[in-house]
Design goal:
Blueprint: H1 2-32, E1 37-41, H2 45-54, E2 63-64, H3 65-72, E3 77-89, E4 92-97, H4 99-104, E5 109-112, E6 120-123, H5 125-131, E7 138-139, E8 142-143, E9 158-164, E10 175-177, H6 179-185, E11 199-200, E12 202-207, H7 210-223, E13 226-229, H8 231-274, H9 276-284, H10 289-330, H11 341-361, H12 370-376
Parallel strand pairs: 4-10, 6-9
Antiparallel strand pairs: 1-12, 1-13, 2-11, 3-4, 3-8, 3-12, 5-9, 6-10, 7-9
């Protein structure tokens, strides 16, 4: 039982970390890949990327539409997508942007149509499912990015024109409208500056070549009041920090696996010693040393496979529990997938450890003094 428990724990940790690491990398790459640069207010570049691309942090602030427009006219820039947010509906972020944004993630309508007018909105698949929203429904936004019933814009209701098909990206958890709707919702807060001081949250840019991104990034950060962040660079930095934690947990899992292998080895030695009379009898009935070795190996293999299967199942249950937390906190779902090549590699290591433990523990089988053992019995 101790051998199975140790092996189960090591496999649980190893497979859980592998799945989290693999899916997190895929999720971050899939959501950040469509854009070369983010421009927003001064602050942390990582926070800027997390808030505008992954939508899991608060924005660094707003920027002037005029200043953003001047930058977007740079000839090195191929494509510009503005973002504006600051409101939510029952905890789901309402994002004001252009129609190009949905195209970047390959989002299409499963029901209804895309928004074309002010105060029309489309819901991501997860947002629509969790909020039980249907095409034609009306809703009002609340100020801020967290659910609240205090600062509600009752005078400016939105109409749902479409439900998006699942994309496996952040779009699934967003409510999309146009930027003009975001401005109109808040115009009572800035009536005297309605036209002169329009603001947005950020710009998402794509360049004609990679050199343009590096050159403009340095120029913006040095010569303007804005901040430019490169999503790939910031995501790589984030994964580097997270990777240290993943490596630590994998190291612990490996250490437990070695202890489990040692436990199996000790268990087999004990088995051979306690059953030497039985094994000696089998030899008298014609069993060969190799057949006795197979008996011991099958017992060790049974322990190893039970431990591996239990560890893999508990690892997947761990992923399922983690995805519940991730869905609530970050609006992201992990998938329960079949074993991948790395998990098969772990199985090979377990089997190799089992064979090695069997060979070492069964060395005494070849030294059985049958007549003495049976005489002592």
């Amino acid at each position: 039982m101790l051998s199975i428990l140790l092996l189960t724990l090591s496999i649980l940790l190893a497979t859980f970390v592998l799945q989290i690491n693999k899916q997190l990398n895929r999720h971050l790459e899939k959501n950040s890949k469509p854009f070369d640069m983010v421009i927003g207010a001064k602050g942390s570049p990582l926070q800027l990327v997390l808030s505008t691309i992954l939508h899991i942090d608060n924005p660094t602030g707003n920027i002037s539409l005029d200043e953003a427009s001047r930058i977007s006219k740079n000839p090195m820039i191929k494509e510009v997508i503005p973002l504006s947010f600051g409101d939510n509906y029952k905890g789901y972020k309402i994002l004001g942007t252009s129609s190009q944004y949905l195209g970047k993630y390959g989002a299409t309508c499963k029901e209804g149509r895309l928004n074309t007018k002010n105060f029309e909105a489309v819901f991501g698949s997860e947002a629509a499912k969790n909020l039980n929203i249907s095409v034609g429904s009306a809703f009002v936004s609340s100020h801020g990015l967290l659910q609240n019933d205090i600062d509600v814009h009752d005078e400016k209701p939105f109409v749902v024109t479409g439900i998006l098909a699942p994309t496996g990206t952040v779009v699934d958890h967003l409510i999309i409208t146009n930027i003009e709707s975001i401005w109109d919702v808040h115009e009572h807060e800035h009536k005297e500056h309605k036209e002169e001081h329009k603001e947005i949250t950020a710009l998402l840019l794509n360049f004609r070549n990679p050199i343009g991104a590096l050159q403009l990034s340095r120029s913006i950060n040095k010569d303007t009041s804005l901040q430019a962040a490169l999503p790939k660079l910031e995501i790589d930095r984030l994964l580097k920090f997270l990777g240290i934690g993943f490596q630590t947990i994998n190291g612990i899992a490996l250490a437990i696996l070695l202890v489990a292998g040692l436990s199996i080895f000790i268990n087999l030695i004990k088995t051979v010693r306690e059953r030497k009379h039985e094994l000696a009898l089998l030899r008298t009935y014609g069993a060969t040393n190799f057949q006795l070795l197979k008996l011991v190996f099958y017992e060790a293999l049974f322990l190893s496979l039970i431990g591996f299967i239990l560890g893999w199942l508990l690892g997947r249950i761990g992923v399922l529990l983690f995805t519940t937390l991730a869905s609530n906190a970050y609006k992201y779902h992990l998938e329960i997938s079949i074993p991948d090549e790395k998990e098969f590699f772990i199985l090979i290591i377990v089997l190799f450890t089992t064979i090695l433990a069997t060979i070492l523990a069964s060395y005494s089988l070849f030294k059985l003094n049958i007549s003495k053992i049976l005489a002592d019995a």
